[in-house]
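Form P-L/3: holo structure prediction, ligand zinc ion.
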Amino acid sequence: MKYDGTMRFEELTSPDVAALDRDATVLVLPLGSVEQHGHHMPLGTDTLLSHAVSLRAAERSAGKVLVLPPPWYGFSAHHMAFAGSITLRAETLMAMVEDIVGSVVHHGFRRIVIVNGHGGNGPAIDLLAATLGHRHHGAARIAALTYFQLARDAIAALRQSRPGGMGHACEFETSMIQHLRPELVHSGLAQTTYPDPGSRYLTTDLLGGSAVRTYHDFQDLSDSGTLGDPSLATPEQGAAFFDAVTQALTAFIDDFRGWTPPGRTR
Ligand SMILES: [Zn+2]
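OUTPUT (holo model):
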């Protein structure tokens, strides 16, 4: 079933929202960042991507999905050595998301998914899923995910780069922007960096999944700010990644729609 109208929350009127089946509608809040993406990619890469992925997943979903307008900024302290990076304090990011989710729960929405597109937001969204889930228990179900982790198996099967080739402004992100907004990619300026994080317990790879948490300041890992291999990026690869991540997100949303309704614990 194709959604019969806009998927963009900001394009609805207040009466449109009041008339929605707010129990059946899944609301998606994309998150990202405004931060350096090497010498060849735009500052807004992460938010551009999470928004585009969310809109396409909403379109592919079997049911009604609305995508909230994303707040542009995220937690980017580790990028501040590079010009143009803007960071919220972690507590500001959390307070902002708490207020947005609190508002839509106030208006009766009961199924909310936070779709994150920036690794640096990961710890905050983990905590938000727990704290907001507790706060709105009985009123709404809230899930949070990072979309490229949701699709990690599919991305791993498509990637050309060896471990370390996907991290930041890398094969993955560059291909995705080449597919969606090619005019924003300056491929001739791209620089490849396979960073050495200094220990077998650490990884910078997008799919790396180390159990250890520590602070990586990007200026210590890369002169250009890039982690990984953008030279392997192509628009065709971007189309394949985009299809894989939107399919994974659609599958999640359609499953989430069937989770135990809020207020019923079993
Ligand atoms: Zn990024």
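COMMENT: The mean pLDDT is 94.
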